[in-house]
Amino acid sequence: MSGNEGALTFEEGVIPFIDTYCIDCHATDIQEGDTDLETLQNIGEGPKKERETWKLMFKQLSEGEMPPEDEYQPSPEERAAVVSWLKEGLGLTDSAEAALVE
Ligand code: HEC
């Protein structure tokens, strides 16, 4: 057992999640909150500024702020899977996480 079974991948887990729950407001030609989630490359592979976007996404998802409450919501399991993928991809320690999330 690797302990990683069921973990998301960028292509098969994270992109479909964004496409389902976020893209209506965060596509390149929409960018609510100045946030474009359409062109993101995998963590660490895109331009440096994307790291800030991933961190904001981590914060919004951890705090349950996005999607906005009157919008179609992911299940708690889907949300948790993406949050843990982000935490691992960003290499966040618990204290770094605490600093991001109020
Ligand atoms: C119905 C439209 C809508 C959907 C769907 C939506 N957002 Fe947003 N998002 C907004 C708006 C409007 C703002 C700017 C105002 C605000 O922060 O509330 C925003 C802001 C943001 C920000 C910037 C926050 C900051 O502090 O600058 C991030 C990151 C974000 N959204 C991520 C997401 C993620 C991830 C999803 C999908 C899980 C998502 N959003 C789904 C409308 C949406």
Feature tags:
102 residues; mainly alpha; 5 helices; 51% helix; globular; binds heme C
Short description:
The chain is an all-alpha fold and 102 residues long. 51% of the residues lie in helices and 0% in strands. It binds heme C.
- How many strand units? 0
Instruction: For the record, give the distance between the C-alpha atoms at the N and C termini, rounded to a whole number.
Output: 34 Å
Order of helices and strands: HHHHH
Number of helices: 5
The residue-averaged pLDDT reads 93
Amount of helix: 40-55%
Strand content: under 5%
Mind summarizing the main beta sheet?
none
Q: List cofactors, ions and other ligands.
A: heme C
Assign an overall shape.
Answer: globular
- Structural class per helix/strand content? mainly alpha
Q: Low-confidence spans: pLDDT under 50, at least 5 residues?
A: none
How many domains, as an integer? 1
